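Explain this fold:

***
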Amino acid sequence: MNKENRIRISLWIPNNKELFDKLSIEKENIEEEANFQFEWDRLDGKKASLIYTYIKGLDFENQGNYKDLMNQIIDYVILFKKAFKKYI
C-alpha cells in the first residue's frame, strides 16, 4: 500500500558515505544543473545513503495515468544521470 500516492526516484549510494559527502559539497551545482531540488539523506548509522525526489499521482486503484507516470520516471532518471554524471 502506498498511502502517499507517490513514486520515489532515487540515487542509492551503498557503503560509501565519502561519495555522498563529495556529492553534497556539490549540492548547489548539481541542483542548479538539474534545475531541481533533491532530498539529501546521508542515513547516518546505516550503510547506504539516498538522494531522491518523488513523483505524485500513483494510485493502485486507478491505473489511467500509469503511462504518464512511466514517462515522468524516465524523464527523472535521465535528469538524475545528467545532473550527477560529472560528479561520480
